[in-house]
Amino acid sequence: MKKKQEVEKSLKNLGGKVLGDIDKGENPSIDVPIRTLSNVKFDVESQMIKMGGSLAKRYFFNVGHVRKFVQTIEAAAVAKELIDVQKHLSLRETFYKMKRTLPNSNINLVDEQEESNAAIEDLELITGASREFLHINANKLGSVAGKVVVEDKGDTIDWSKLGSGGWAIPSNVEEIIFKKVDAKFIIYLEKAAEWERLHEDRVWEKLNCIIISSQGQATRGIRRLLQRLHVEHKLPVYILVDGDPWGAYIYSVIKYGSISLAHISQELAIPGAKMLGLTADDVVKYELKRHLIKFEEVDVKRLEQVKNYDWFKDNKEWQKQFKLWKELNGKVELAALSSKGITFISDKYIPDKIKHKEWLD
Amino acid sequence: MKKKQEVEKSLKNLGGKVLGDIDKGENPSIDVPIRTLSNVKFDVESQMIKMGGSLAKRYFFNVGHVRKFVQTIEAAAVAKELIDVQKHLSLRETFYKMKRTLPNSNINLVDEQEESNAAIEDLELITGASREFLHINANKLGSVAGKVVVEDKGDTIDWSKLGSGGWAIPSNVEEIIFKKVDAKFIIYLEKAAEWERLHEDRVWEKLNCIIISSQGQATRGIRRLLQRLHVEHKLPVYILVDGDPWGAYIYSVIKYGSISLAHISQELAIPGAKMLGLTADDVVKYELKRHLIKFEEVDVKRLEQVKNYDWFKDNKEWQKQFKLWKELNGKVELAALSSKGITFISDKYIPDKIKHKEWLD
Q1: A96 near B CB under 8 A
Q2: Nearest CB to B89 within list A139, A290, A338
Q3: Residues B196 and A90 sit within 8 Å (Cβ to Cβ)
Q4: What is the distance between the terminal CA atoms of chain B, rounded to a whole angstrom?
Q5: Residue B234: Cβ within 10 Å count
Q6: CATH number belonging to domain A143-355
Q7: Which residues in B lie closer than 8 A to residue A168 (C-beta atoms)?
Q8: Is A89 within 8 Å of B155 when comparing Cβ atoms?
Q9: Percent of chain A scored above 70 by pLDDT?
Q10: A48-63 pLDDT, tens per residue?
């Protein structure tokens, strides 16, 4: 991850390059890494989904290129302004900020958010900085608790002293400073209700860990927070999701990265993350068969897709699970563990799993 | 709102009533207020959607009643257990906890969550307590910031010292104690991104207010937090939503309550809440016409529905807005204000509106 100063330098270099072309009387151009599927692959060595090295040259004086060229430069101008005034915008706000009409024309610089998004993604590649460093934020979601003290915007925040709510995770966690991290591992939960379960049962205190939840797919802010704690503080990450192909995909994205964000896997992926549950084995072991919710056609189809991902297809343990899911022909929710007792997930399921190293890798 | 002890007493009374019937050799019965549309109406005096007084008697020895009768008693038993052990469950977890097979049969007490939900709603009516007091929680969502200090679960939390994240609002805010409230009003935002905008611009500090956001429809926890601050600390509530019928509906629910939760409007509705924006007038005044997103058929249909609600249909100002929306034939997002400048919403739009009392009632 590039540091703040380097990001500013990258933006300056981009502008300097274009101005240089103009000074030399050349057709202004920028090099943009290609973000098509053909340039994305699973990198076995790093165990991450990564981008290949293919580059494309984009010219100003080229009818097919000019719109994207100008959009990328405009995205850079917005990022520079944001950095200069020390403010942030969301992706949607950035779209509206970029959506201006070119002078003496009825042409909008961007008409749809897809265009500003693509320009921002190109800018991430050109500058080597994730858009959080360009002051363009992702969605805000999720809560965290644990024996951790952070410094953020001049405030000192103790994640163990925030009542039943916990700390609301910001969309951008790049500038958070970890002052004290007194935890042995992290539990990530797909469901906010299960986070409240663990929090009420004070699992983070009893097991000396950090608990983090999203609601559905983990946002960039949550993934980056997990990754920073994992990398900077060597904390193992255990993932708890509903037992279905969609849960397996949430795990997959946190662990290996995703195709659409392949260019920043280095900052988001956590190859060391472990799947704690719910596994198909859990359904048998914890007698949850009666709580199976029958797969719809879309679930069966998704199961086939996920099963055949490059990073799963040679993994014997995962293939065993996928096979068993197909036999079970239904999904099981984390909430179903409540049928075993109000605090079963906190007092028995999680401690046992961690004690016996009962996870999938 | 009944106090804790009263709720426990109500649960005991329910059990006592049924046991009494059995002792007397009578057919055990419970009285349940009727939750059909015909028993729900807009109460002009209180300006809330409220339930009428119709009651239904539900008998144990009645083939058509027995399933619901037993489900309601089971919900009461779960609530009592939760209160006894001082734990909470989510609606979904409660469903799984109630979903047990009756001894010597293959009959599940509940098969679908709709059944446990209905039993819990009946129990709210029977005990006169919202389900948060029965220890059954709603969804967890949202963030809050402002010069407020609360006490929750033994922790003292200062909403003005929580960095860029803010406090994550718990699903259940009944036990929060307000220790210090140094604010003149509350701004509620439909979008988390706009909350981050206002928070980064420190609007809560500059205007001396509290900022609260959901992401889409406000959860019960958020509505109850708004209502408690409004009632207990006499703070005006200003609502900021996207300019479309869906935003108008979010406002409508916060202000007047909703049909499905009519039985607890007293605890959730805020008849004094004001609509700050985005209004149809705003589109004209702030030259946002170019950012209109054309209505789909579903939007036009929704507009007609909302326009004809009892509490809107005689409101001249709102009818003027609905008419103008129809002419504009498109929605406008809060994020579109970014086109006027990064901090326009914080530095100009909100302060001007509040200064000139430019809101809808």
Answers
A1: yes
A2: A338
A3: yes
A4: 26
A5: 11
A6: 3.40.1360.10
A7: 142-144, 162, 165-169
A8: no
A9: 99
A10: 999 998 999 999 999 9
Q: Compute the distance between CA of residue A146 and CA of residue A182 in angstroms, rounded to an integer.
A: 8
ipTM: 0.93
How many beta-carbon contacts under 8 Å exist across A and B? 183
Q: Pick from B195, B281, B213, B143: which is nearest to A93 by CA?
A: B195
A217 at interface of B, judged by CB pairs closer than 8 A: no
Per-domain residue ranges for chain B?
4-137, 143-355
Q: What letter represents residue A346's amino acid?
A: S
pLDDT at A3: 73
Stretch (H or E) spanning B166: none
- And the tokens for A59? 């010219």
- The topology (CATH level 3) of B4-137 is Arc Repressor Mutant, subunit A (1.10.10)
Alpha-carbon span A59 to A80, nearest angstrom = 22
- What is the model's pLDDT at position A2? 54
Question: Which positions ≥6 away from A89 have C-beta within 8 Å?
Answer: A78, A82, A97, A135, A136, A137, B197, B338, B342
pLDDT in tens, B213-261: 999 899 999 999 999 999 999 999 999 999 999 999 999 999 999 988 9
- Cβ atoms of B248 and B199 within 8 Å: the answer is no
Catalytic residue among A96, A249, A251, A256: A96
Residue A28, both tokens: 């202004």
Q: How many whole angstroms separate alpha carbon B342 and alpha carbon A265?
A: 29
In one-letter notation, the amino acid at residue B6 is: E
Q: Could you list the beta-strand ranges (E) of chain A.
A: 29-33, 40-43, 48-51, 55-59, 89-90, 136-137, 143-145, 148-152, 155-158, 167-168, 177-181, 185-189, 209-213, 237-240, 274-277, 293-294, 330-331
Beta partners for B41?
Answer: B50
| Residue type present at position A295 | F
Q: How many CB atoms lie within 10 A of CB A308?
A: 10
* Helix, strand, coil percentages, rounded to 5, for chain A: 45, 20, 35
| Residue of B169, B147, B306 lying closest to B233 (CA atoms) | B147
Q: Whose CA is closest to A155, among B285, B202, B187, B102?
A: B202
pTM of the model: 0.94
Nearest to B125 by CA among B270, B269, B14, B49: B14
- pLDDT tens-digit series, residues B148-201: 999 999 999 999 999 999 999 999 999 999 999 999 999 999 999 999 999 999
| Beta-carbon separation of A96 and B291 below 8 A | yes
Q: Is B286 one of the annotated active-site residues of the chain?
A: no
Residue A129: pLDDT band with limits 50, 70, 90: confident
Which chain B residues are within 8 Å of A215, Cβ to Cβ? 139-141
Would the CATH topology of A4-137 be identical to that of A143-355?
Answer: no
- Identify the CA nearest to A145 among candidates B137, B199, B140: B140
Which residues from A are below 8 Å from B88, CB to CB?
196, 200
- Select from B342, B344, B345 the residue whose CB has the most chain A CBs within 10 Å, as the one to mutate to test that interface: B342
Torsion from C-alpha of B142, B145, B151, B155, nearest 10 degrees? 80
